[in-house]
Amino acid sequence: MRPQALARTIVRLASHLVPAWRRDEWRREWNAELDQQTRERPDAAVARSVGSIADATTMRTQAMYLDLWWGDLRFAWRNAAKRPAFTFLVVSTLALGIGAVSAVFALVDGVLLRPLPYPDPSRVVFVWQTLPKANAFELDATPFDYTAWHRARSFEALALISTGSVTLTGSAEPERVRGARCQAV
Amino acid sequence: MTLTTTLVLQAIAGGHKYGFDIVDVTGFPTGTVYPALRRLEYAGFLRSAWEREATAFKDARPQRRYYEITPAGAKALATAVDPLRTLGALNALAKPIR
Fold first, then answer.
1. Residue A75 belongs to domain spanning
2. Rounded distance, CA A45 to CA A52, Å?
3. For chain B, which residues score pLDDT lower than 70?
């Protein structure tokens, strides 16, 4: 076999390692180089063509990462399409799980994580009255208590608030609503 | 970057733009140069393109695939060559061992 033919055969055999979508270009590049080489130094053509095996192996390795990823995706899709009931169960479980986690997180974020919309929220407190002897706790403060506490200067600011139900009247039917009375500071 | 890869990149930066030309100038076998070219291109340090058909036709040869260094490649080359230059400078200062 002539050196040029032998070199081309080596490249052709090595090209089977190259991924199909790059094979033609790869072969074209090698053949172009070998054609020129054969004209200038025919004796070196075969030795140089042997390098195509290492080159093709590199191409195969590079493509393997992509091939593996793509192959896994296609395998998963085929299996999912084959068993629609199971796929529906898995997708529903995932959807419910993700939805539940999102709802819980939204609650935790709103109640525990996000700060209250005013400065120094940790300094804001409710003040109650306690009468241990009468076994009475969390009693509402009276206006007299308020005046006494205000005079004591233990708090930077104080305000009275009283919650309860009130009757809303007007042109329509009266309505019982929950409300609160508070003192303007 | 390995010394081999650095030299291949340096050859391209020096104007040797196709496979066998790089093989000739570096003295490395094709089985070393071509895989290095693939890795460098994959890493974004090189880009390649076929030369114009008219040019190849004029020189009566098949079209070649030309490799060109990218800005990222030039930066990587500068980083890789720097310690080698320092080593060369140190070597020039060293007294020969008798």
1. 3-79
2. 11
3. 96-98
